Amino acid sequence: MTDQSWDPYERDCPTRQLLDRIGDRWTVLIIGALGDGPLRFGELSRRVDGVSQKMLTQTLRALERDGLVTRTLYPQVPPRVEYELTQAGRTLQGPLGALDDWARTHMVGVLAAREAYDLSV
Amino acid sequence: MTDQSWDPYERDCPTRQLLDRIGDRWTVLIIGALGDGPLRFGELSRRVDGVSQKMLTQTLRALERDGLVTRTLYPQVPPRVEYELTQAGRTLQGPLGALDDWARTHMVGVLAAREAYDLSV
DNA sequence: CCGAATCCTGCGCGATACTG
DNA sequence: CAGTATCGCGCAGGATTCGG
């Protein structure tokens, strides 16, 4: 063994792969919105304020592709589609919830630090 | 009170603010790299594989501005600068570590689901 | 109601070159 | 070693329009 105790962030490490996947503006918010149970397309777009139809569709497709969300089409007219977290998707709720808690606790301080810094410049 | 149990993701909620802040390719990796203790600029750029000088500087400045990282200049030649997590910055290690653990456990499955999905299309 | 397809723009970010 | 300055492209993603 070497004395290298730190495993560096290589380009293809799991952390990077996850970041590439959820590191956009909408994925985390959509997973959060689905946390309470299945939602229809329209309900989702209302809960995630400001998301465009295109990005909502695109993000949901990606989540479905990765096995984190299921898409269920009820063949009726008008069409009804429901999205729901899979088992795997639900395992993300914990880590994401921790981030959410951090945000509620610390973001005020961060914003204050930012203002103070700007004044000092 | 209303029967509205869900607090929607308004444009300025803490979650969104945090996401706007750490939702880029480098911030999370840099905080992770600083988790073991202070590091110099050059050490950081070696640990975070692929980060450009520009993005490393830029991200570190933003972290300093938000009170998550301190920058210490040792006036000697050649110059020596060390970056270190602040108390507030260290409180992020928990939530970020949880995400990291998730990635190590589940990303393989996600990648597999993705491949399966692509084949089925 | 739920999407797909197209067009168009901003700016994130990498590459490169230069300072103290 | 640790930055700053400038240029330029790629592409995420918003607006809009059309289909089932």
Characterization of this structure:
Two copies of one chain form a homodimer. The first copy, chain A, is mainly alpha-helical and 121 residues long. Chain A is 56% helix and 12% strand. Chain A has six helices and three strands; from the N terminus they run ααβααββαα. Chain A has helices spanning 14-22, 27-33, 41-47, 53-65, 87-91, 93-119, and strands at residues 39-40, 69-74, 80-85. A three-stranded antiparallel beta sheet of chain A has the order 1-3-2. The radius of gyration of chain A is 19 Å and the shape is globular. The model of chain A has no long low-confidence stretch (mean pLDDT 92). The interface between A and B is large, with 56 and 55 residues. The structure holds a DNA duplex (20 and 20 nucleotides).
